[in-house]
Amino acid sequence: MKVTIEGRVIDVAEPQTLGASGFRKQTVVVQTDDKYDNEMPITLVKDNVGEMDAALGAKVKVYCYLGARQWNDRYFLELKYAGHELMQAPIIQAPQPVQTMPPGYIPQPDGLDKELPF
Question: What pLDDT, in 10s, does the model give residues 71-103?
């Protein structure tokens, strides 16, 4: 079953290499803009690993396949990546200016470091 998820990318995990075969896997988390924000982990495997690395903070539409499996009498669902569209570029915040003190400045207690009026 194919599913479409729209939201903002809030986390891109480091790629993992599993087993001797070199199987690669990565998880990307998309937060939806629904009434109740949901954080959806999407699994990228093999050749798709790394496709969404630059999308952190971007608004995207992600196409996934809904996969299910059974393990120890329990059932698990997984969103498997099939592709994505960039809807809005990542919002990049400007770096905050760093306040530096002049060389040799020594702060004084009780506000005595204010300049004198003369």
Answer: 999 999 999 999 998 888 776 655 666 666 677
- Residue 8 has a CB neighbour count (10 Å cut-off) of 20
pTM of the entire predicted model: 0.70
Task: Give dist(CA 39, CA 73) in Å, integer.
Answer: 26
C-alpha to C-alpha distance for 8 and 117, rounded to whole angstroms: 53
Enter the tokens of residue 3. Answer: 């599913």
Nearest to 51 by CA among 70, 25, 32: 25
Instruction: Tally Cβ neighbours within 10 Å of residue 58.
Output: 18
Sign of the torsion angle spanned by Cα atoms 44, 48, 54, 55: negative
Is the Cα dihedral 96, 102, 107, 110 positive or negative?
A: negative
Task: Tell me the two tokens of residue 47.
Answer: 């050749």
Report CA Rg, the chain.
24
